[in-house]
Amino acid sequence: MTLFVLFVPALLLGLPVFVAGWVMYDRAGRLERTGVPAHGQVVDVRYRRTDEGHRITHIVLWHTAQGQPRHQAVQFPTSALRTLYPGAPVTLRYDPRNPSRVRVDGTPSPRGQAVVLMVFGGIVLAVAFMLLLGGLATAL
Q: pTM for the complete prediction?
């Protein structure tokens, strides 16, 4: 009975984590494959001190295919920071149905984080089903 009781929390943790990873992976891949390319430029660089050190955010201005101006806050990898100053050009891809979904070339893809979530959620789901099978075996 104890194993069966542990099944529900494991299922309630593993399934949403796995699904969140799957959705993140799918959205990132779809944006990389079908996103509309656009050119923009860095218009501002913001520095903020955090507990982990300094956080640098670049504000990128770009225009949709219909000519609407958009601003996007972007975190670039440390290796790109020296070349990104106000006025620096960037290329990006955006979702035409939801222009707030943007991926600037050179920024880390969220696919790695998505894989970690799917693996963790999959392991927790596997444990949940082993608990369920163990609980059923002891009940019989």
A: 0.63
